[in-house]
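Most newcomers find our protein records easier to grasp once they have seen one. Sequence and backbone structure share a record, each on its own labelled line. To make this concrete, we reproduce a full record directly below:
***
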Amino acid sequence: MSEPELSRRTFILATGSVALVALSAKVAGALPTQNRDISPLVLSSDLYASPLPQRLVLAVAVGKKYDSSSPAKIEIQAPESSETKVLDTKLYRSGLPGGRGVYVSEPVLPTAGIWKARLITRGEKVPFALQVQSTPIGPIVGTLASKSASPTPSETMGVNPICTREPPCALHKTSLDTVIGTGKPVAVLFATPALCQSQYCGPVLNELLKIYKKYPEITFVHVEIYKSNRGVELSPTVEAWGIESEPWFFTVDGTGTVVGRLDGAFGREEMVKQLNALQSN
């Protein structure tokens, strides 16, 4: 079976952020001006300067089609440094759309700025760049999660619909403000199946619905990204959590502390890992 082709809109959205970063790097003299058939698509939306490892996730396009059939490594180089480090990646395909697996590594990125990077795959080294911010945008592991409310059928908070999945999912019965920090472990998925620009939201919500009943002690909540199907105004909960992309998955322990986060693209395997860790916390 051939790999799925990127829609023109999805390809532009996926490569646009990479192109902007690459342009910044090019102006700074960081990247060669070489065009390749293989395109690394950076799906991590919140890389930040930290002495601790963090999740870097890529998708790969060959021409205008996604591809997740070949092993890959990532080479990174800090701003104003000549030293490079080669990272292994783990390929996740389970629970993700056909051909759209993701490559995940865990680099340490201690310096803010534009990092040079190269995807090593299929005998080629394909340059791209990573934008590392000085501080994170969304909640990170070890910080307290927002105790803001989330839409429910009885209190929609002006969000309509509160679930764009067809049929709507059952993870809207509980408002986050009634469970976070109350001694209960919580897992929250921020995703919009109908309006997701990356097209990963629907599949990841479907995967979560297949497994959440295996964790009866964890409260699961799904939060839509937008207030309406116009896809313009963010929901109040998304604004309170400070996230600016989709999808996101957070696990929060009984004290209200974030103990795990995934963003950009992820499937069942990574969510199960986070849920198992939350359960044993």
User: Anything to note?
Assistant: The longest strand covers residues 113-121. The CA atoms of residues 55 and 106 lie 5 Å apart.
